[in-house]
Amino acid sequence: MGEGGIGLDGYTGIPDCTVVGISSAASKILCTEHNSGLSLLDSVAKKLSEALGSFHETRSGSVAVELDGPLFERWLMKVSMGYLAAGHTPLGRRFPSNPSVVAALFGTIPMEPPIGMYSMVGVARHTDRVKEVLFRELVAIDPSGTSRVVGAMVALHGIPFLFSFGGPFPIEDYLRRPDGKSYLDPYDCTSARAVFHPPYLRVSNEGKKQLEVHIRWPTSTVESRTTL
Length: 228
What we know:
alpha/beta, globular, disordered N terminus, 7-stranded mixed β-sheet, 21% helix
């Protein structure tokens, strides 16, 4: 996404709005060979990041970008796994126990729902910080009473996405607390719902300008268009 700085939010032990270089935001948990194998994933995130930058800089009109859905989905998975492996959660460091999760990350096997990427509809966006990557882990309590991470929210420049590692409940159940308030502060998720494999996102700013994100998926297992 370019080596300029980004603002980090949601890291345990790191103050919100801390600005770091892009390379510093990743946990170095892979050898050079495997890290190189995932470099293509960063390029698709950079493509969206640059489109979002153009959207923020323009005063009116439309900005459009097309993304490879499976590659962006794997980028979200890479970011989520790096975040968890770095130990930036109240639960400490977490590594995937299922080998198929790692195989899906490297693209050797397809991801099977409910594992994968979701967009968030009906959530108030935060675009005051143009350069922002926000992380929030999603935690469930299993039948033995043990807390485990079942997914994460990754917000890129104000657009939130969810990545699910699968869990005992639908991903939407992790957006709101029993009292209806949001788990994912500072995003208001009281009216949010999750959309699996969205083919289309539209971000608008009071009707003066809009960003159109077309997401290509290899199958027809996608839901309807999403407007943020």
